[in-house]
Amino acid sequence: MSGKLGLVFFCLITCLGVGCAINPITGQDEFMLFPEHQDVEIGQKYAPEVEKQLGGKIKNENLQRYIDSIGQKIARVCHRPDLEYHFTALDHESLNALALPGGYIFITRGMLEKLSTEAQLAGILGHEVTHVVARDSSAVMSREIGINILLAAAVSADAPGGVLSAADVTRQILGLHYSRRDEREADLGGLDYMVQAGYNPQGMIETMQILQDEQKVRPIEFFSTHPDPYNREDYLTRRIQSRHSARTGLKIGTDDYQRNVLNYLKK
Questions:
Q1: pTM for this entry
Q2: Cα–Cα distance between 151 and 88 in angstroms, integer?
Q3: From CA 13, how far away is CA 11, in angstroms rounded?
Q4: For 58, which DSSP code?
Q5: 55-111: per-residue pLDDT in tens?
Q6: Domain count of the chain?
Q7: Residue 100 included in any domain
Q8: Is residue 21 part of a domain?
Q9: Which of 41, 42, 197, 241 is the most exposed place for a label (fewest CB within 10 A)?
Q10: In a domain? residue 201
Q11: In what order do the strands lie in the sheet containing 97-100?
Q12: What is the pLDDT of residues 129-159, one digit of tens each?
């Protein structure tokens, strides 16, 4: 077997083994540099460091349970309900939400303070759940950082020479960018999930409007790691009209959000 043919054969075997995965959102095969079972391992390893670098958990168990309860409603209707999802509110002033592989999803105090309804919260959590389901986080991390670095990074700050610490790698993770295609899929997938979970899809539109208004005043972290296509509201509106216009009685949840989130955050 020639060297070139051998290389082609090796790449084919790799793709058939570890490298190819079906994206349940699009139904298409996508190349992945690490198998799905390692998503949870990566998420477990870096979730504590994400919490640490973004202010730690908000110290209110009622608020945390409320955020998690909304997230779990989304998780139950998504394409990967078998994963164990974790939804955590972090005590950080940035306007941000992010997802790690394996079902670890975070939203910041700054973001929560700008929202006003449960449906808006469901839209953001649905967006992040879609990133987990589609393995977008896994793909960008494996491409930009590499599975060997992700798995080898030392949890201890006393890492041996040449070995990055988990804190160093987490800083890279927090700066990763999704593609516009990934963002569009996460918007549309999250919209469908929130409706299936019983929430009014206008909450997603309202959230985009809130964040775009804030963007005029200061840079928004959610948009720095989630590119902001100019037509985001347009394609979300079209999706609502084509798929969800007949749905009635969907929850907005203004009073519930005020009682469970805003009343605490304003103290």
A1: 0.87
A2: 23
A3: 5
A4: -
A5: 999 999 999 999 999 999 999 999 999 999 999 999 999 999 999 999 999 999 999
A6: 1
A7: yes
A8: no
A9: 241
A10: yes
A11: 86-90, 104-108, 97-100
A12: 999 999 999 889 888 888 788 888 877 555 5
